[in-house]
Amino acid sequence: MNDAVNNDVREINETYINDFNRIAKSVSVRCEITGEHPSPGEMETQIALRASIMKIASLRRELTSIRAVVTYFLEEEIWPEGIEDRDWIMTADMEIVGQLHSGLVRTAKEFVTLGHDVSHKLVERAMQMNFPGSEEDAARALSGMSPERSRRKARDKKYMQPITDRDFMELELQLSDHPHQNALKTLRMKRTDSKALLRIFMRSIRLTGMRPIEVFTCRILVGDENAEYTPEMIEEIKRAPYRMALKGILMPIDALDPQPWGSMAAMVRNATNITGVPPILMIEAAKTTNANPDLLRPFRAQILTGIEDDDLEVLCLAAHLHHFKMDKKKYSNLITTMTRNLTASAELALPQRKDTLNLYSFRHDFATRARRMLQVWEVAALMGHTARASTYAYGKRNTRKKSGSGGGWMPLNDCEFAEAIREKWGAAPEGAPDVDARQELAAALGLDLPDLTPFPKID
Length: 459
Description:
single chain; mainly alpha; 21 helices; elongated; disordered N terminus; disordered C terminus
């Protein structure tokens, strides 16, 4: 079918008006989600978003409608009757609408190609801004598509295909030419080894369930080798690591004296052997709201008891990423690049998979495994969930329980925090992060904590 634009004024029927109004409304909704300002030019982006989801026949029909309405405006210098009264539509001038008209010259197939790139960026942004749902939910919300009009269905987290140990090994093999250490060596260079960084992120998220953006600012704390810890103190650290960290009795691994003969994991093991204090992973929460303001913490803690040396080494590398002072746009660009590398690697290493892997897939897999092994409030404490529905969304189906393994290694949670969630979860008011508590912990540990919110506009 020929998608070329007809420059003659077409008859404006009710279908054209309804299509135009529907897309204009979805522009307003998308801009509200992403924090942008709606404008006629954003309708071109909106069509691209919808093109990545809807059937080609429906896309062509909508293109015909938009082109007809825009052409009418350029000819008559007024919108046709029936166009909804939106400020950004009614105040548009000929130049802005003319630019939109030029963008609409693309064919439907060209919009589909553009849509995949646009959708990826905007969905990533929405997830970074804590969109309350899956990436598929975000894609539909941003596009304005209802589920029945979508070409694809949202993945129910209870039925998501698991990432098995073999799947992970295949991915690691595909990326094995990029050693983990290369990520830290190249982050300050013009060209970062994003595949090495991807290996750190894949393993860190799979082990701990961190959100991708949280990997950039996580810390590992250990006991101070110059301090004395009583058995009671050690037990209290294991029960309430966050509260004990606030007392300043733990230290970040950055402060350990490097040993020329050992790895970072060996240094952490040595500190544990001397002090009896297990390594603590401190994760700065990306969430900014919570159903219970008194439960929201700027950090959540995981206790890394029983972790393998190779896994601990990778988490130590992740805990050093905060040393690299990057602006917010670089954080976003690195996550986008890693996601593309992961998608490409999975297509080669795991051709049998029906779903598309991204960094959040490893977080979802962690949650599914944790739900099978732990109580729901313990899972929430590990993952930093701020809504009960988020944790209950993960089920026990489609996960293989290894003989004698219980599902693989899992960090221990902050018992004090998990118990607080168990007792008080479900209060209605929303709250904001406790900035004073965040700074209190920073002062106790001597940490330099960057502000990662809000995220930048994605070009």
